[in-house]
Amino acid sequence: MFTSLAGKTVMVTGGSKGIGKGISVVFAKQGANVAVVARNAEAAERCAEQIRKDGGSANSFQGDVADLDSMKKVAQSVADMFGGIDILCSNAGIFPSAAIEEMTGEEWDTVMNTNAKGSLYAIQASLPYLKNAECGRIILTSSITGPLTGYKGWSHYGASKAAQLGFMKSAALELAKYNITINAVLPGNIVTEGLENLGENYLNEMAASIPLKRLGHVDDIAYAACFLASKEAGYITGQSIIVDGGQTIPESLDAMA
């Protein structure tokens, strides 16, 4: 049995929808106090309210991970409300599509600022409180896209997700002296509002390329994050867990025949 997460405080950026909402809900089910952070205050509150209705402990906080001052205010508010921060799930991310030939510098910067710089700012804002935790935990939501695979139109997204992992390695060295671990979950194709917007053909195509023959659920990512947040994962840092149903294993579709 794993040591309970009850009473721990987790701050989840991008926590109001998709994978972030799944992480928020699952941590609440484990008894954690959940700070649902999102740019959209109403969406964050809807998620927090649903958690409370289901018997969990959650509050909503409006913040933008691309703005350091915003994240510092959020982290202080979370710590003031719950008495500290034990776990940071740096999950906020965007994935607009843009072909390389047409991509603007502004489009590139927007993705990098949210996905890569956003992780830095979330960590910088949370660090004073994570240092005071019994065993601080940081979990990044990266992706198989970028570190392991590619997809047309997502070169900026892939670059941002690979950047997170490069950042994580050095961060693990710097944070170890505070007994803080930092690890990443690399989701494959997970059913979320954003993925569903890509259309049925995309969903069917992706499911066909996965050995388990199905897309993932947000809970699949959330439980991996819970493991990395556990006391039992305390000797794991600077590492990545791929949660993709085996999608990145076969060399071709023929390998699954």
Q: How would you describe this structure in keywords?
A:
257 residues, Rossmann fold, 7-stranded parallel β-sheet, alpha/beta, 8 helices
What does it look like?
The protein has 257 residues and is an alpha/beta fold. The protein has a single domain, classed as Rossmann fold, CATH 3.40.50. It has 8 helices and 7 strands, in the order βαβαβαβαβαβαααβ. Strands 3-2-1-4-5-6-7 form a 7-stranded parallel sheet, with helices on both faces. Strand 5, helix 5 and strand 6 form a beta-alpha-beta unit. Helix 1 packs across helix 8, helix 3 runs parallel beside helix 4 and helix 4 packs parallel to helix 5. The chain starts with 8 loop residues before the first strand and ends in a 14-residue tail after the last strand. The model has no long low-confidence stretch (mean pLDDT 95).
